[in-house]
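Cross-posting from the chemistry board since nobody answered there.

I work mostly on the small-molecule side, so proteins are not my area. We synthesized magnesium ion and want a rough idea of how it might sit in this target. Sequence and SMILES are below. Is it possible to get a predicted 3D structure of the two together?
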Amino acid sequence: MTARVHKLINRPENLVDEMLEGFCAAHSDIVRLVDKRLVMRAQPKAPGKVGLIIGCGSGHEPAMTGWIGEGLFDVNIAGEIFAAPGPALMVQGIRAADNGGGVLICVSHHAGDLLNAELALELCEAEGIDNVDMVLLYDDISSAPKGREPERRGTAGLFFVWKLLGAFCEGDGDLAAAKALAEKVRDNTRSLAMSLSSCASPVTGEVMFEMAPGEMEIGMGLHGEVGMGRQKALGADETIDLMLPPLLEDLPFQAGDEVLVLLNNSGSLTLMELFVLYRRAAAKLAEAEISVYRSWIGPYATTQEMAGFALSLCRVDEQMKALWDAPANGAYMKQL
Amino acid sequence: MTARVHKLINRPENLVDEMLEGFCAAHSDIVRLVDKRLVMRAQPKAPGKVGLIIGCGSGHEPAMTGWIGEGLFDVNIAGEIFAAPGPALMVQGIRAADNGGGVLICVSHHAGDLLNAELALELCEAEGIDNVDMVLLYDDISSAPKGREPERRGTAGLFFVWKLLGAFCEGDGDLAAAKALAEKVRDNTRSLAMSLSSCASPVTGEVMFEMAPGEMEIGMGLHGEVGMGRQKALGADETIDLMLPPLLEDLPFQAGDEVLVLLNNSGSLTLMELFVLYRRAAAKLAEAEISVYRSWIGPYATTQEMAGFALSLCRVDEQMKALWDAPANGAYMKQL
Amino acid sequence: MSAIGAQDLSALIQAMAERVAAEREALNRLDAALGDGDHGTSISTAFAVAVEEIEALEQPSLNAIWLATAKALMNRMGGASGAIFGTFFLKGVATLRDADRLHKDAMGALLAAGLEGVKARGKAGVGDKTMVDALAPAVAAFGAADEFASAWRAAAAAARTGAESTRDQVARQGRAKFLGERAIGQQDPGATTIALMFEASHLWWKENKQ
Amino acid sequence: MSAIGAQDLSALIQAMAERVAAEREALNRLDAALGDGDHGTSISTAFAVAVEEIEALEQPSLNAIWLATAKALMNRMGGASGAIFGTFFLKGVATLRDADRLHKDAMGALLAAGLEGVKARGKAGVGDKTMVDALAPAVAAFGAADEFASAWRAAAAAARTGAESTRDQVARQGRAKFLGERAIGQQDPGATTIALMFEASHLWWKENKQ
Ligand SMILES: Nc1ncnc2c1ncn2[C@@H]1O[C@H](COP(=O)(O)OP(=O)(O)O)[C@@H](O)[C@H]1O
Ligand SMILES: Nc1ncnc2c1ncn2[C@@H]1O[C@H](COP(=O)(O)OP(=O)(O)O)[C@@H](O)[C@H]1O
Ligand SMILES: [Mg+2]
Ligand SMILES: [Mg+2]
Ligand SMILES: [Mg+2]
Ligand SMILES: [Mg+2]
């Protein structure tokens, strides 16, 4: 078997602190660590620009610490494994990201992230911090039906938002414009994930849920949330042929559209497999006369060593393409 | 269990072709695919510069296709899974990489890679292609004792060679100088790997070797080659404390040295774990008064979904630091 | 007529803290079946911080004690449950104003405000397999009773019954939501914590104020 | 006195190709225990290509046939084993020059040159658990015999014995090298292929030239 449950960590209760120390030590040219849990740019943005923050559970590396840097986020507030940070830390993050242009809290829709962002906004109000706003982001078509998009979860497709919004906030747009852009990207983005395996929790040292070898589940969430039920694992082309049509239908993406494509590795899928999957996705998109502007293939938001991937599409216009091509320099997102 | 054996591929006999098609379609701005197995730069180097090629087995993605591009390799010749390509393909690659400045064949020391490079050189001689040379590279201290370095295997530490040599060959150095630089980097590089799990062969669909959960092996090679024997899996700090001293001793790396550090993910280790491991390695290097110039943490050369890592160190001088910092634009190696 | 003063209130929080700490592993086990197995650790750590913060208060008013508890739960638990348990205390704070003693109805109002806050924040109703299944009947039972002793007794019993009722439910909020039918047969850890909190309060009342 | 002409040589290669193809799965199984389980597939595919290339030759001289086989093995097998098996044929080519018939001693010289090439290329000696363990005794036995029939018979027997001797060995070359002691008890697939090649030659000789 290729299983493992043992993780190369020390004591679970020190895990997040130690990993952030290691990460920030390795990338001290890009980030610095404040107060154990705030990862922020080594060089802050120019005054007057909108600050971007995100608070989220840890355990999804390189998300989101790897996306702090020029052309990306200003501050990441890291929670415990798979648990959003509390509101006091969020407020500290908001203060740190404030360059005088206001701060946008980006929320990848999960209960903890949303509730703590709401609490943080209430605290800001109480403390007289204004010019802070929040944007709720989601992309996973399996977690709620069409027409009820705001109930959907945030997953890998939000990396399109992060990249484009990050580039936008290096420019002169204000807080309202930044929020509008985030919503525009979100509303043009759709994702669907699948998984072939479970993974072990670094906190408990136990497998997070059971999954028999040879099974797969379409629609699984970033923490193993159930999707559309188990089925026999398929080959690469068959898997894409199952996942792409509902994605295309949902927006819908249509002939003549130009898209960005992301194949996100949940953990232990190989790049080899992702390339084979991409080959089919590209062929099927070409058949549908949808042209690919750029693509990303790799581990962006992981769920420990889960073997699976998410396929995400984002329809782009000229503004979005230019934002895509703008430089970025996060530890795990580099655009020359 | 978190095991899986099922791979998201189609027919194993088409695997390498399909994966290269997918890879090159996704990165058509950087690479192009010639004759199914040659991945080469979309824009060739300026005439007169030394061409760099490497032939190697597939299944280690993003190695080496992800390292074709500006500031890196000119051509990768992709063999079958874990098997070096034959000499005819190598010769084709040599011709493709020849910009008039000669071609250096980089060999990561494994029997197949070396033997086929030798055969290719013999064919070149027979066909009157001159100005071609080969450099044999190795770094893994577990595969042969000190004093018998040329018997050692090539592993993740060679990425230091690839990066520095790639940058060097964008300049005006000739073939002999390029070879000398590769040897200089090699002679300053040492690596040691470990693994916690086996992985499945995409060709046979079977687990490649047995490994019990809770075990680890220090010194395991890129294809599961046996290392220094099995032992009980340790925590992160303990593992670094076991692996770093023999590495330091081997060169030896000494107080006052400046080094590059690589933590290579063999497949399904999490970045989270690698950051915790890096934290300890950085602390121990600091204790030894060895300063880290830059570090890389992530999947560079993988062994399918094996859960393990390699720790590599490279002692650098001013020339090497400058080469390190030079721009690179491979699909999976970007330096701004 | 009996009432709760600041010292009483901090003793009450401490009683809750001790009770969840004692059940820490049991709560972790419940959460392992439905979520990520950390509920006992999170809630007991956060309550322990609340007790410390209360002890450190310079002006330990009712208001300050309840707010310190809210903050400890929100900030030390993190995640959705930290926000939910924190909100329960946070939303009561406004009902306290400058009061220095709580009569039974004021205590009921404090609890009721917390419940409303939780429902508004977390969007869970009774039957969704969350702590609301224990909290809602407990608050109702507390409100319906005439005086403290019977109020605590009825609330504790209602919370326990409510917590047990979660066994037969499919979750519609919290991590267990993603388990679908697989959640049936398991008792919700958050609801169990609420039962422990009310049982601890009832016991404390019996031993100290009756 | 009997000799091997160009047509014979291509028939000989074809006989080898058929024999390894028939044993393809058995060879894969041997390789699965010691390496990556592909030896049967690789060698039979490469031999099939050799047969095709030989058929397509415009000038099927002895030299061209042996070279075509070398190229097919080198380029279609890939890896270390492609280089090794390819070298076996490649290094014999020079001994052939423009010969159009091979007498027994010339055939022996062809095989011996191949063996030397393999040893120089792969650095394996007898006892290292590789195809050399079958090839070296086979070439020696062939050389020691007086004429073709007994040469092929002795070579086939020696190759088989050599292949079987690999079972007790620890590998010092090839992928199995990395198994250490774990390799003991398993027969080397490459050595087995050599035995099959000599057995096929012996059989072909018996059926066609005796
Ligand atoms: N939206 C919600 N409304 C009410 N209670 C909730 C909600 N979400 C979660 N909970 C409660 O939180 C408990 C889980 O707590 P805990 O394990 O500490 O958090 P986490 O799920 O983040 O690990 C659940 O048992 C449930 O009672
Ligand atoms: N250095 C060597 N010298 C001689 N024979 C070798 C050498 N390396 C490998 N071999 C032979 O190659 C065989 C394996 O062939 P095959 O499975 O086709 O290649 P691979 O190991 O690349 O998958 C081994 O059984 C062994 O006989
Ligand atoms: Mg949790
Ligand atoms: Mg092979
Ligand atoms: Mg939990
Ligand atoms: Mg093999």
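Reply from a structural biologist on the board:
Welcome over. Reading the output above for you: The interface with chain A takes residues 32, 36-38, 42, 71, 74-84, 86-87, 90, 121-122, 173-175, 177-180, 182 of chain C (CB under 8 Å). The longest helix of chain C spans residues 189-208. Happy to explain the token format if needed.
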